[in-house]
Amino acid sequence: MADPVGSPEATGTVTATQQYGDTGSFEVTVTVTDDDGGVGTDSITVEVANVDPTAEIDVADAEVTNGEPTFLTEAGVPTSFSGRATDPGSDDLELFWDFGDGNDTSTMYLVNPPDPDPFPSPSIQPRDITDDVEHTYADACFSELSFWAEDDDGGISATDTASVVIAGNADQVRSAGYWLHQYRGNGRIDFSDDQLVCFLEIVDHMSTVFDTMDLGDAQDVLSPGGNQGDMTQLLDRQILTAWLNFANGAIGFYELVDTTGDSVGDTQFSDVMSTAESVRTDPDSTHSELEVQKDLLELVNES
Questions:
Q1: What is the pLDDT at residue 27?
Q2: How far apart are CA 54 and CA 25, in angstroms?
Q3: What is the per-residue pLDDT for 137?
Q4: Residues 6+ apart with CB under 8 A from 226
């Protein structure tokens, strides 16, 4: 009697997809049965790597200054910021803000509060969070705002940054002579050296003419050859004075200033400064064109 002949061996491919909500090692088992009751199994371990979260500051309300998003605010005035963080995993996220003035804050966003997300996550709940914060800067200065996210698997986003210019609360526009006395330390001094340096940090950020100025640089610009400098130097003096008045809070960035001598605001300060600095940095500007801008800013600075 002949031996029974077995069923021919069948081959094929089994495919499946699975989304994981957490990092870790997961065993995947494939089981195949045929219509005669035969069963075959195989297993493999899948290593799921963590994906770092993302973090981004909302700069819709920021001014673009020299190519950088810049929030404009005033000392003592609450300022609102908003950031968005995302994560494809079902991770608890902690969102961090560093306001650049020695103050920071963070907020934890749980997947399913009030309990922390277990490991591994039993659900698939990608995160998309908007974090709104408010901060009050105490003093006029330039600051850098930072925002980032960390997930419960140790993933950290790249840090997103934006600039913050905090103007003072002055209500009186001052002349170039006044600011020269402040930076020389002569006469009545209204500001500490630290405050004067902060004003220059604001100028450095806002201006296309000045960069990395120190106290000595400011003195030189404000006193161009005993007030007998060439027209470029005289214009620089008025540009610096205007920015110092802005930094001190005496002139708002969008404030209408008088450019005609009739004591009525007619042109936004931002536009006046953009025009003056464009003329100043144009190598083809004539003596007459420089003088027009110098005279205009002198009017603004002594109004």
A1: 59
A2: 24
A3: 98
A4: none
In order of 72, 85, 169, 268, the CA distances from 75 in angstroms are 10, 28, 7, 22
Residues in the chain: 303
Residue in the structure block whose two tokens are 């901060």? 135
* Domain residue ranges of the chain, discontinuous segments joined by +: 54-167, 176-301
Q: Does the domain made of 54-167 have the CATH classification 2.60.40.10?
A: yes
Helical segments of the chain, H only: 176-184, 193-206, 215-222, 231-247, 269-281, 287-301
In whole angstroms, give the CA distance from residue 248 to residue 222: 16
DSSP-assigned beta bridge partners for residue 257: 267
The DSSP code sequence of 83-124 is EEEEESSS--EEEEEE-SSS-EEEEEE-SBTTBPPPSS-SS-
Instruction: Give the pLDDT band of residue 224 (cuts 50, 70, 90).
Output: confident
Task: State pTM to two decimals.
Answer: 0.86
Tell me how far apart the alpha carbons of residues 271 and 258 are, in angstroms, rounded to a whole number: 12
**Helix (H, G, I), strand (E, B), or coil: what is residue 300?**
helix
Q: State the sign of the Cα–Cα–Cα–Cα dihedral 55, 56, 58, 63.
A: positive
More confident call, 260 vs 1: 260
Predicted pLDDT of residue 24: 55
Instruction: Yes or no: say if 276 and 240 are a contact pair by the CB < 8 Å rule.
Output: no
Q: Residue 170 pLDDT more than 90?
A: yes
Closest CA to 163 of 138, 137, 130: 137
Rounded Cα gap, residues 64 and 120, in angstroms: 43
